Every structure is written in structure tokens, then in C-alpha cells.
Amino acid sequence: MEVVDPIRIFPRLTVFPCQDQPFHYELKMIATGGDQRYTFGSSSFDLVTVLNPTEGILEITAGDKPRQGAVNGFMTRFPPNRDNATIAIVPAASLSIPPHVAEAVVGTQLVIPVAMFGVSPTKGKESVPFHSCQGVPLASKVSDSRSFEVVSTQEVAPLSPDSKDGAQQTSLGCRGVAVEMRSPGFSSLEVAYLPSTKASLNAETTIAAFEPLQLLHKGDVILAVGSSYQLHFVGGPRPWPKNPSNHYKHVNGSSDALRVVRVQNAESGDVHSFHVEILCSRVTLGNDEAAKEIPTFVDVRVGNYPSPSLPYPAEAELRIPIVCAAPADVTLIPLTTRPELEP
């Protein structure tokens, strides 16, 4: 005789939005317990089509009317060991933009999550998120159309930045809006759901684009002991407009052979361009006696500290090799203070 755990199938309740035009959503059910061999089915034929009964892959047909049905999963060898889950189609009641990554490098796309909610058919008046909302009409617009462009409102919602490797990753919403970052700046992004029978639901967020952090100096940086040099950087995330005091520029030398004297913005006052003065204090050598000078590094990090309006800030990093060396020879160049006399 074999004793097994009762079967449980998940998700227990899956909700999709009512919409003017029929739309087919795909849903995968998960089962636990039993002997790990399951069969899925449903008698709600107008709502649920079982595409793969052993893998739990379903097709849900959503239309303009609220509906509710059941999915059952059972142990293939012993059908009485079974469980049921609920599938429902309900009207959209609210829309929001969950906390998300809001900054991206120029030339890339940023996908903003959109979450929509309905009223639970099984839990009183409790608000429940839609599993997917790809079929509903969404309108999106940016306030700065020169620097930003909405390229798609049909993206899969991004995963939460809090999701960790090896753990179950959580989607931030039921839909994603992709925005192309054309040039540096800030913009508001408004997303609205415009059903034909109700007042519109909308939400707004702020997004930012920034140039990559880069050093303007070309070529190697080699300094004599005791000498200093100014490194000129541009780019990186800009001060967040809702909390500009949270912006930082962290600069560190990788060893005591290199000292960071000062970090200051460009004379023009442009906070996106800054200078770092470094001082070479001693020669950096390898471990063996025959080793030559080896580079030490200047590590630069630019970004904003997390805040309620920017919970997942971007950070730009750059590592610059610097060689502190003793001069191998000295060359004297005469300084002519007056024109040479005619013979």
C-alpha cells in the first residue's frame, strides 16, 4: 500500500479582465502532492480549454461578460485524490504602476510594469490582481516626446528587482510598456485603460535616461611619483528630480599609492560633467623583485540613493587603470624667452 500527500493545485484563484473583444490567455497550473503524475481538466468548456492535460496548460477565453469556472487536477493513477481551482473573468476596477526600475542608458529600452485589479468573485469585495491583461486596450504617452518614445504597450511585465537567483521570480504586473531612451533627460509616463463602458483608469510615473559614464581622457594615464592629474568624467544617472540631494559620486583609489584629492563638478556647473583630481604617492610594483610597475585603479560610481519615488535606482560604474611610476630618464627642453638674434 502506498501513502501519498493530498494534491494541491495552484494558483488557487486566477483572474482575467473583461474586455470588449474576445481574447485568449494561456495559463499553466502547478500541482503538488500525490505521486507527481497529474491530469488536469475542466467542465467550464466556454471558459477553459485544456491544451495539455498532463502539463496543466490551459487556454482561457475572456469576453465582455463576467464569468467563473473551475479547473480540477487529480492524480492520474488515483483520480479521487484531486483538487480544484477557480478561474474568473471580472471587470477592471483599478490600475497602477508598481515600484519599478525608472532609469536606463540612452539607446536602450525600459519596460515599465502596469498592474490592473478586479474585485474577487470568491473573497467578498477584496481587490485581486489580474494574472495577465494583454488583451485590454491601453493608451500611453510621455511628456517629453523628443527624448523618449513609447514603442510598445504589449510587453510582458518585468520581473521584480527583488527576485533572487534560485527563488521563484515575481512579475511586477500584468503588462509592460516599453519606452525607448533617445537622449538624456526626465519625462512623465502616463498609462490609461479606456474601456467603452466606464470612466478611464490611469496612472503616472517618472522615468529618466542618462548617458553612459565615461572618461574623456584617451590613452593610458601614467604619473610620476608626487604628481597629480585631473580626470574628466561625463555621464551616469542624473540627480533624481524628486530628491536631488540623494545623488552621489563615489570615487576611490584601489591602493594607498593613489590618493583622490578632490571631486568637483565642471566649472560650467553641469552636474553631469565632473573632475577627479588624483595624486600619485608611491610606485606600485608587482610581488616579485623583477616586477615592473603595475597599475592601480580609480573606481568611480555614480547614482542616486534609494527613495520612495526611486526604490530601484540605477548605478553607473567605471574602473580606470593608473600607473604610478618612477621616471626612467629626464629630458630637458630649453625654454626660449626671446627670438633668436639674427647672425
Automatic annotation (TrEMBL):
GO terms for cellular component: nuclear pore. InterPro entries: Ig_NUP210_6th (IPR056898), Ig_NUP210_7th (IPR055099), NUP210-like (IPR045197). Residues 97-193, 218-325 form the NUP210 Ig-like domain. Signal peptide: none annotated. It comes from the Eukaryota. PANTHER family: NUCLEAR PORE MEMBRANE GLYCOPROTEIN 210, NUCLEAR PORE MEMBRANE GLYCOPROTEIN GP210-RELATED. This is Uncharacterized protein.
